């Protein structure tokens, strides 16, 4: 990215607070300039976990500022998605406060072009605190991505039964199939997470009768069926 073409973006990427502050003072319109990836400076500040610069940018936006949860880049990622992926509850709270203070009701279920919600991303990166925050704010556990996977599929792929319990407590379907007809329990077995799969059956009566075993390792299948 050219520092001459996108100076504020570059300052955010380099975590240069004083430079960013001076650039905004000289030309506030830079706050709403999009780069070649269709990103605003705020996208990069969040990406780099530059908390001070995030605060600076949000505090510098003009009246009638855009909703942060609607500011999508080329891939459909908003600052909320990026924040959920990097795992900063502090920045997430700041983004929410900014939108609320500007009279906007945050849509926590907004998706990227790949259909991923903030919850998908937070779970994939094992950011439990972010997951808790998103659920507390009412984000749905029932939204599939473009491959049909629920957040529960993501937890299953990681073998994270604690997150699975939380998702199911918030009414996640247990036996939902993705675009390849894979359920969360099957997703876990494909990744070799036998204990996760057993816990899903014993605690939540997950259905294992229709599992397609052809891609599951023979030892995994044997161990699971001996203990289920």
TrEMBL record:
Keywords: ANK repeat, Repeat. One of its GO terms (cellular component) is nucleus. PROSITE patterns: ANK_REP_REGION, ANK_REPEAT. ANK repeats lie at residues 114-146, 147-179. It comes from Henningerozyma blattae (strain ATCC 34711 / CBS 6284 / DSM 70876 / NBRC 10599 / NRRL Y-10934 / UCD 77-7). GO terms for molecular function: proteasome regulatory particle binding; protein folding chaperone. InterPro entries: Ankyrin_rpt, Ankyrin_rpt-contain_sf. This is Uncharacterized protein. GO terms for biological process: proteasome regulatory particle assembly.
């Amino acid at each position: 990215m050219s520092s001459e073409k996108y100076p504020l973006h570059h300052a955010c990427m380099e975590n240069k607070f004083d430079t960013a502050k001076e650039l905004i003072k000289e030309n506030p319109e830079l706050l709403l300039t999009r780069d070649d990836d269709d990103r605003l400076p705020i996208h990069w500040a969040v990406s780099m976990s530059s908390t001070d610069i995030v605060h600076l940018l949000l505090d510098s936006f003009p009246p009638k500022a855009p909703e942060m949860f609607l500011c999508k880049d080329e891939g459909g990622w908003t600052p909320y998605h990026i924040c959920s992926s990097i795992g900063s509850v502090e920045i997430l709270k700041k983004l929410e406060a900014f939108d609320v203070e500007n009279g906007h009701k945050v849509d926590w279920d907004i998706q990227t072009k790949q259909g991923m919600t903030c919850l998908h991303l937070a779970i994939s990166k094992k950011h439990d605190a972010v997951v808790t925050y998103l659920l507390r704010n009412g984000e749905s556990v029932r939204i599939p991505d473009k491959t049909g996977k629920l957040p529960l599929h993501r937890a299953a792929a990681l073998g994270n039964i604690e997150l699975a319990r939380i998702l199911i407590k918030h009414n996640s379907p247990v036996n939902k199939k993705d675009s390849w007809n894979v359920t969360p329990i099957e997703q876990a077995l494909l990744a070799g997470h036998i204990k996760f799969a057993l816990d899903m059956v014993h605690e939540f009566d997950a259905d294992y009768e229709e599992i397609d075993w052809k891609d599951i390792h023979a030892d995994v299948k044997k161990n699971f069926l001996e203990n289920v």
